[in-house]
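Because discrete structure vocabularies remain unfamiliar, we first show an illustrative case, written as a sequence plus integers encoding its fold.
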Amino acid sequence: MIYRPNFMHDPINGPGNLMDFLDEPFPDVSTYEDFHTIDWLREKSRDTDRHRKITTKSRESYWELIKGLLDAWSGWVVMLLIGMLTGTLAGVIDLAVDWMTDLKEGVCLSAFYYSHEQCCWTSNETTFDDRDKCPQWQKWAELMTGNSEGAGAYVLNYFLYISWALLFSFLAVSLVRVFAPYACGSGIPEIKTILSGFIIRGYLGKWTLLIKTVTLVLAVSSGLSLGKEGPLVHVACCCGNLFCSLFSKYSKNEGKRREVLSAAAAAGVSVAFGAPIGGVLFSLEEVSYYFPLKTLWRSFFAALVAAFTLRAINPFGNSRLVLFYVEYHTPWYMAELVPFILLGVFGGLWGTLFIRGNIAWCRRRKTTLLGKYPVLEVIVITGITAVLAFPNPYTRRSTSELISELFNDCGALESSQLCDYVNNPNMSRRVDDIPDRPAGPGVYTALWQLALALVFKIVITIFTFGMKIPSGLFIPSMAVGAIAGRIVGIAVEQMAYHHHDWIIFKNWCRPGADCVTPGLYAMVGAAACLGGVTRMTVSLVVIMFELTGGLEYIVPLMAAAVTSKWVADAFGKEGIYESHIQLNGYPYLDVRDEFTHRTLATDVMRPRRSEPPLAVLTQDSTTVEDVEALIKDTDYNGFPVVVSRESERLIGFVQRRDLTLAIKTARQKQDGVVSSSVVYFTEDTPQAAEACDPQPLKLRRILNLSPFTVTDHTPMETVVDIFRKLGLRQCLVTRSGRLLGIITKKDVLRHMAQMMNQDPESIMFN
């Protein structure tokens, strides 16, 4: 069914050199143009040739042996550098976000660069009961008017909160728009597309790295419903791309570069969540397209170095990698699986609602005047967010602090409203009953505020994600789930207290222990909502237990994650990142998509019956002028080479870029090559042709003698599988060795879209 004329490259005529008349290959050959797909097989072949050459040379002298060892170790050096820079940037971002978030409410008089928490740490006048209040920290109204209470102070603080938020968001969107348009959004859909073999020049550049880092701090500090976790993956991949340019092994081979970027993505998640193992699994499950075992080890090392660097900086001051670390002292019970699964259902429904609402809004942004005013959109959304967020203490604070409070267990030292329980020592029950912990007025107030915060977060996040500023989705999704989970947890806790004699609550507790831990429900809800939006499973559970230290609670997390995925998949298979890839028309062949239609290669190949014949080159009768005219009149990435136009017998395939550079270089370096010179792709040039004028041009060495071919009756199910697993750019269709047509990756994607009743023209790029 699959015809491969000559899979192994001829050592003489392989891709190692460029032309007969050049000793060294021209430097730009085999590089790719912007918005094109790489040829994975070709990159693999080039790396094998390079490795073989290094191995051969290493036997010649000790110096060459040392160079070979340095080449072998360069991968680990790159991982070390990526981990150190990513961890450092993450620590700086965390510290800057803490300070700038608190700056909206007040300032530290002893040192203006201290956040509220750091300011009160250094104070000698802070008491335990009022540990959030210290003379050194003053709100803006108190600083300006000397009065911290009353309606006037409240209005002034309100106004300044909104003003700071608008300033931060305006700076963020302006910097992105002027200096680095690619620094907006999450970055994960584009990273997935790049790792699948697509070229987007500048997306991982130095300017993008710098602007994304600065604007990420501004965007998160503005109080918008977004997180820094997704953009940190983009930042880490920018670091990876930066260090790739220092080593020719990676800078000259796009396939090897993508192995480094996969490891960099793992380092990004490692520092975003303080979850090194979760980062490796995230890269494997969610982001990477090609993930060999060697990349797994290097990802692990990069994630380790990044986490170690972040731990050394200690941005949260708690000797932990994350803000959310909690320790629960109560086990979970089998009966609690019911509310955990219900939270999973909620997570799946929220994921479906968010994806559909956000994609509809982003599509509207693309197709209406809204997309022409990104600065105005960001300012309006920021203004609405700040106006609605300030009155509610649970939306006013940073989302990370909110999640941290929702995850926390209510110990004796907690001063949160959520822990305002009534403790009456005079009341007595049997020793095997539930401890007497009826909810106090603070808990009921907190529940109303959390319910309002839940509705606010659900709605505003739909409109925030996808704006022209760095915006991550992990933290807002976790916040929605954590709020819902905490509300459910308190409800179950109070039900267990007031109806302790129900059969489901009997024999739950050890004497003196709390039966229900509402913080655990918040953690499970956060996992469920994040899973519903992203469709992660294994990496999600590992990230959550690394994030919180809740190793004992893996089963509830697994139950919620699987349930949310099942529920969300019932309404649509694509997660948020795949949906944005489709919306932007990126040429991404998802390995999880199933193609079950009974079509053949002949139904998809080009040219169709109504189209002009396939543009081909002949092996010994095409002139330089003909080749240049063909390149000028068409925009194809390459051309099949045949014996003659009459026989259409396939010889090989030549890349457009290689052909252009070869002719350009030949005109400069080889005497006698003119427009009327005949181009030969044959092994030997006829003696008569060499003797005559003008001189012939021999381009055998840029010819790929083993292009991937299938017969016209190959099922498209097989063709799609080949494109996925081998990362092909194009595939030639033959019958008995005679060329019939060509199938490109774009043709495959268009055909798949057509079979799913989608617009085939939505695949915009090559």
Remarks:
- The longest strand covers residues 738-744.
- The first helix runs from residue 40 to 57.
- The two ends are 27 Å apart (CA to CA).
